[in-house]
Amino acid sequence: LDFEWRFENLQSDLRIPALTLQPLLENAIYHGVELDDNGGKVTILIKWTGKEVQIVITNPYHQYKKSKHKGNNMAVANIQERLQMYYGAKATLRVAASEQFFSTQISYPLEEQQAYIKETSMT
């Protein structure tokens, strides 16, 4: 198992909503890396585009192998709900699969995050 963390143009006040990365990394291991005979690598890219925060998690994908961990998409659904609660329609969560890789991409605006942090710290 190998992890590659990549960071691009990060802002010092960047926050990632709680319980966002951990379940996605678990999914990457259970449904990707564990099925890879070579151990596999999970790549985590976190970057600031100037308009939004983007997080992309990429892991090996084995279309015809079944994980011993039964998936029910609960982690993705919970993360999507949490993002909508914080950022509304401006947040997205997308998944994509190719022949060799599976990726999950999250994006959300930093401005709403800063406003939310200020609002919750005042209460």
Report on the structure:
The protein is α+β, with helices and mostly antiparallel strands. It has one domain: 2-Layer Sandwich (Heat Shock Protein 90), CATH 3.30.565. 31% of the residues lie in helices and 32% in strands. The chain is built from three helices and five strands. Strands 1-2-3-5-4 form a five-stranded mixed β-sheet. A hairpin with a 3-residue loop joins β2 (41-48) and β3. The longest helix has 14 residues, at 74-87. It starts with a strand and ends with a helix. The relative contact order is 0.21. The model has no long low-confidence stretch (mean pLDDT 82).
**The CATH top-level class label:** Alpha Beta
- How many domain modules? 1
Instruction: Indicate the structural class.
Output: alpha+beta
Percent strand equals 25-35%
Taking all Cα atoms into account, the compactness measure Rg is 15 Å
- Span between N and C termini? 42 Å
- Count the strands? 5
**Strand order of the main beta sheet, please?**
1-2-3-5-4
Task: State the low-pLDDT regions, or none.
Answer: none
Helix amount, in percent?
25-40%
CATH-derived topology:
Heat Shock Protein 90
How many H/I helical runs? Answer: 3
- Coarse morphology: globular
* CATH architecture annotation name: 2-Layer Sandwich
Main sheet summary: 5 strands, mixed
Kindly report the average pLDDT value: 82
How would you name the CATH homologous superfamily? Histidine kinase-like ATPase, C-terminal domain
H/E element string? EHEEHEEH
